[in-house]
## 1
Amino acid sequence: MIQDPSSLTEPLAGPTTDHPEDLSLPHRFRPWGGEHFESDGDSRWQLALECSGSGAWDWNLLTGEQFHSRRWQEMLGYQAGEIADANHEFVNRVHPDDKALMSAAFNDYLQGRTDSYSADVRLRCKDGSWKWIHTRGTVVSHDAQGRALRMIGIHTDISDRKAAESALRDNEERWKLALESTGDGVWDWHIASGREFFSKRLVEMYGFTQEELAQNPEALDERTHPDDLGPMQNDRQAHFNGLTPTYSNEHRVQCKDGSWKWVHTRGMVISRDDAGKPTRMIGTHTDITDRKNAEALVRQHAYFDPLTNLPNRRMLRDRLEQEIKRSRRDALQLAILFIDLDHFKEVNDTLGHDSGDVLLVEAARRLRQCVRECDTVARMGGDEFTVLLTELTPDTNLESLLQKMLHTMAQVFVLGQEQVFVSASVGVTLYPMDGTELDALYKNADQALYAAKGAGRNRFSFFTPALQEATLARARLTTDLRQALVQQQFQLLYQPIVELATGEVRKSEALLRWHHPERGLISPAAFIPIAETSGLIVDIGEWVFEQALTQVQIWRESLHPAFQISINTSPVQFQHSHAANSNWVMRLLALGLPGNCLSVEITEGVLLDSDDIVTTKLLEWRDAGIQVALDDFGTGYSSLAYLQKFDIDFIKIDQSFVRDLQPQSTNFALCKAMVAMAHALGLQVVAEGVETAAQRDLLLETGCDFAQGYFYARPMAPEGLHVWVTDRNAGLQP
Ligand code: C2E
Ligand code: MG
Ligand code: MG
């Protein structure tokens, strides 16, 4: 129960005189008269007290009488003696808001709960303003029953200190507000008391109101993600120990609704006790959930293929590195499968990229289904996948798994209205038998895949040392090929193309030869693919073009003014249009040659990949008069659509149809059909690989326009062809 100090006089005692005064005092106590001190021995202390700037009071609890020193009165703005009746004066001056607190302090003291009485209260001054004073006192005499009779104390003016404190508080409030306004939540942890203040913004961040979240550090620690709690506490401790200038940590906190939020908390110890132990720390919480989500997305992008959600090349590399380490430790085996879809490009080109995407997603799903949970299926890009089979034992039946894989991939793919079939080629390499380093294993798998494709696709092929040998040979050839142009190791041979009806020769095909300094003559079939993969074909193609141009100029003068040379091109040359064949028309113009002195042989692959570059090029050539021949016709798609869509002048029936040409054979029927079809479309036909008179006769029968082959002549050096043509035209015989 809290009482007004003045009312305490009542319960304490009725006025009684039978108990001796000053029992507890070492010397006789004389109350102040309010105006002056008597200058006896006691007054020295009284004087000293006055000098300290504090006012003194003396209170008789029996009578309720109170005396206040002159200093006390001055403190409140009075002249000495101006307050005549000091009795009750004090309590009436206490600010109404501070009375309860003062009574409580007083009661606590009188009832022995505290050793002395003290309180901070505001007192009304003469001019009506308020002054903060610190009041302190002790009982100086008791009655026989131990009841307090008299108290003496002092009043100290603490207005300045209070003002400073309030300014500090305002200041703190201000920075807390400022921090809050950044959208961050603020925390203020009084470590000694275990209390922690959370700002409104902070608790709201997690969906709470301020009443709902306890004001102590555990309230948030308990909501911190178990995986993050340890590191968070470590960071905090590091700062406590003075190892870090500030405390900073990112962790997840569970919101009221159960969801998780990522926050960045930053803080700093702002006070420590004498032993250096932190006593107070303040800091903020910044919501970084969006940033974390974005980071996760980026990570997802960096490590996963967005189309199939399979791990990508980078992720696979990471996993493979780990698996190699693990397998090395546990003596396990691994298999790496490089998988390439056969004919995917055709699907993409004919049905569009959307259908291609659907196919890839489905292919990814099928591959995943073929393997175990612990295996990895990754997409390397395009239609290339890699499978990493882990924990293989000698009992693992790899072949049956590979068969299953091929079988699954060969099943029909339904793409909207369309049903398509693709198959897969697989190259396999084993750790540690074939290699122990990641890059070596990748190379092996690639070689094995190359072999599987070369062997006719829809099959798997294991890496072997022989494959390695072949690859090495290819690599050496590539190196040598780079020198070939500079060292002038190339040569063009010419094979005459005979007009069947007249036997006249006004065309020849330029066929490339490479005279390797050590290995002798290398056939184009062996080096063109290497030139293509290395990109060297572009420069080689330019060389062929220039050579042929020079040659045709000569022959137009010496053999026939309408002589034409046909040159072979690779699809790769069309992909590099900006670097190569783009200036062919200009070159012709520059030399004053008409376009029809050249015929460019392309393969269907070029048309299959047809994009704007190809279309534009073909139109450009047509406008310039350059003729176009479709080489090796009948072996690829042989699509009529191409022939109609593009400006083609000739088709060249592949030699495989001519080889077994018999009067009743299918090939004969096919040749007839091809010629009829071409003629219907306004195209002329060249038959390749004519080796016998019988073949020539049959071709004549089909209505075929031109023929070339060993029957007439093998490819020859320019001088040889010149002689051959001159001789032939001299004694013309069909
Ligand atoms: P291709 O364009 O179909 O050339 C015809 C091939 O058949 C030539 O082989 C030729 O020598 C050969 N041949 C000609 N008549 C007969 C015959 O009666 N019987 C047989 N069995 N073969 C005959 P070659 O010169 O080895 O060229 C092979 C392929 O290399 C060419 O096939 C062509 O695709 C490519 N090629 C040749 N020169 C070049 C070139 O300068 N650039 C490009 N990109 N490819 C070229
Ligand atoms: Mg050709
Ligand atoms: Mg051909």
## 2
Amino acid sequence: MRYARAVVSSPATIANFGPGFDSFGLCLDSPRDQVTVRKAKSGFFEVKVKGKNTVPTDPMENTASYAAIKLAESCGCNDLGFSMTIAKGMKPGSGIGSSAASSVGGALAMAAMLDVKDKGLILEAAAMGEELISGARHFDNVAAALFGGFTVVSDVRKRTILQIRPPRFQIVVVIPDVTIETRRARAVLPKKVDMGDAVCNLSLASGMVHAMMKRNVRAIASHLGDSLSVPYRKSLVPGYDAVRDSAMAAGALGVSIGGSGPAVFAIAQGSASKIRLAMAKAFKESAGLASESFVTVPGTGAKVESLS
Ligand code: HSE
């Protein structure tokens, strides 16, 4: 290992972003996880977690350490040992890419310590961390967390990731007090989809990419529809329809579920505080649910904060 210590900050993300199931990802400016890795003697592995958000501390069950180990293995490092500290900035199972933020943090920190620059290797290792939690190696959250901005997994077989710099807009995120495991949210989806639904998503997704490239916020928001996952998953998010309607009535330009939920996000330009309050109130009144909420903007990807 070339370096003894690395600190990485890694952001929350919104996967699917409307019509792009397992394909689109938007990197958020905040919140972020911070992952610190210190070199230790070969065969010693330790994970500590700081903050109120708990995640496993077994190195083979924690996404960040698992991704770090996978990254090191893929680079042929055979005298591995480390102590890792994760400051969790987000709640697991909330729909804003908590496991991806940690996986990317772990993989990128290990890559920095090994002086590995290949982003493909980091992406692959991070996706393995994601798979550990969700049971599926999907790349949408990890791509957005690693590269930043708006990302499209345009060919999953070849791991082709397109990066588009989004315009600046407000993203209101409201997370009701229910936890949804991605594994469970994937299990409610149908194995086969209707041709009309597939065509609808194909059109919306194509329009979304165009809108992002044109940096047109209204067009981005108007392409947030989805027929492949939201109709099946909204039953896992009590009050979803009321929350969406109240966000739109308060001035949101578009609304959808963040990743596998239960986070609901709205796109706004200017009335974010009002929208946030309206959404939180709707969760309370329609489903009796308390919620956490924040307003952010599109962000840049994971960053090595220090290396020594
Ligand atoms: N694309 C994944 C899903 C994201 O919707 O299941 C999970 O965060």
